[in-house]
Amino acid sequence: MTASIYLKQVELGPMANYVYIVGDPNSREVAVVDPAWEVDRIVEMAQENDLNITKILITHSHFDHINGVEDLLNRTKAKVYINKAEAEFMKTVWPDLVKVESGDVVKIGDVDITFIHTPGHTPGSQCFLVRNHLISGDTLFIGACGRCDLPGSDPEAMYYSLTNTLAKLDDRTLVFPGHNYAPRPYSTIADEKRFNPYLQFQSLQDFLRRGMRITKLT
């Protein structure tokens, strides 16, 4: 938890997923980002910290990020927020589904969360900007980016999401990825621009030619 927002990062499941609980430390209202694998533990953490889950935020619709949504919906009165392009791409439809676009903002108590559309890993992949914290899903990892060889993936879109969208955020922005694939749990935009090889390519052609040969991640 920070002084201005509540942010809890927890690793769950066999694929090293990071699930996030984020919201307002004063009102105790929170959202769960990508609920998966161990919903019992997510609910227990919320109850132990007197948190009220009102929203479910989805970075993208791959199974390892959404397999706990239905269970969590059965335990809360939360609404699900997903990018409209991802809603069209996926097969599952949940009740109280809210389709959002890039730039839309949702309030969690007094904390604003801005949706940033970052296609590439999937058509409707999105990140969440919470003040100076970026929950980046499977778009931007620490030292890597999400795979672009899966159904719905688009390497060209990924390049522009990385270079034209995320790399233009404030360098001090903290990056919280969708998986534990690095020795540390979070990074900064400045460090990713400096050390992440996927942010080093100067052209789309170079990214497509050489970038997609670097180790592929989920």
Task: Quickly describe the structure.
With 218 residues, this protein is α/β, with parallel strands linked by helices. Helix content is 24%, strand content 30%.
Question: In words, what does this structure look like?
Answer:
The chain is of the alpha/beta class. The protein has helices at residues 39-48, 63-66, 69-75, 84-89, 155-165, 189-195, 204-210; strands at 6-12, 17-23, 29-33, 52-57, 79-83, 97-100, 105-108, 111-117, 126-130, 133-137, 140-141, 144-145, 174-177, 187-188. Strands 1-2-3-4-5-6 form a 6-stranded mixed beta sheet. The mean pLDDT is 94.
Labels describing this entry:
218 residues; alpha/beta; Metallo-beta-lactamase, Chain A; six-stranded mixed beta sheet; 7 helices; 14 strands; 24% helix; 30% strand; globular
Fraction of residues in helix: 10-25%
Helix/strand/pairing category = alpha/beta
User: The CATH topology is what?
Assistant: Metallo-beta-lactamase, Chain A
What is the string of SSEs from the N terminus onward? EEEHEHHEHEEEEEEEHEEHH
Total strand count, please?
A: 14
- In the sheet with the most strands, the strands line up as 1-2-3-4-5-6
The share of residues in extended strands comes to: 25-35%
